[in-house]
TrEMBL record:
InterPro entries: DUF779 (IPR008497). The lineage of its organism: Bacteria, Bacillati, Actinomycetota, Actinomycetes, Micrococcales. It comes from Sinomonas cyclohexanicum. This is UDP-glucose 4-epimerase. Pfam families: DUF779 (PF05610). It comes from the Bacteria.
Length: 141
């Protein structure tokens, strides 16, 4: 059986790392690829400030869902993993349910884009593209 190596530099191919926001953490947990950043800039221009919430539902295939900032109400059941400073626009938070984070806490997530239809609730759906997550094991103590 092959064993995947532990990533020492998370998010190969990422162009923008999120600022860490979790207490006591000084490393990024989430990043954007160039295509994801380009699509987010287009969506920001159309919809204003944005946010991500990592879906854990069966129907969305655990997809990163993009909403106008504040449209998806977060609370004690959610964890903010990081904040992207989108150049020339502003901050974009990335959230996940606390329960899902308990399973994914050892991973670094990279938001990417592929052609195809995702969820009708995420802002990129009309573009004929969908956000997806690529994950790597974090090398953290």
């Amino acid at each position: 059986m092959d064993i995947e190596p532990v990533a020492t530099e998370p998010a190969a191919g990422a162009v923008l790392q999120a600022r860490p926001v979790r207490p006591g953490e000084d490393f990024s947990r989430v990043a954007l690829t160039g295509p994801a950043l380009a699509l987010l800039e287009k969506l920001w221009d159309r919809h204003g400030p944005l946010m991500f919430h990592q879906s854990g539902g069966c129907c969305d295939g655990s997809a990163p869902m993009c909403y106008p900032d504040g449209e998806f109400i977060t609370g004690d059941a959610d964890v903010q993993l990081g904040v992207f400073g989108l150049p020339g626009r502003g901050d974009l938070g990335f959230w996940m349910s606390r329960e899902q984070f308990s399973y994914w806490s050892h991973t670094h997530l990279t938001v990417d884009v592929v052609v195809g239809r995702g969820s009708g609730f995420s802002l990129e759906a009309p573009e004929g593209k969908r956000f997806l997550i690529r994950s790597e094991i974090l090398d953290i103590p």
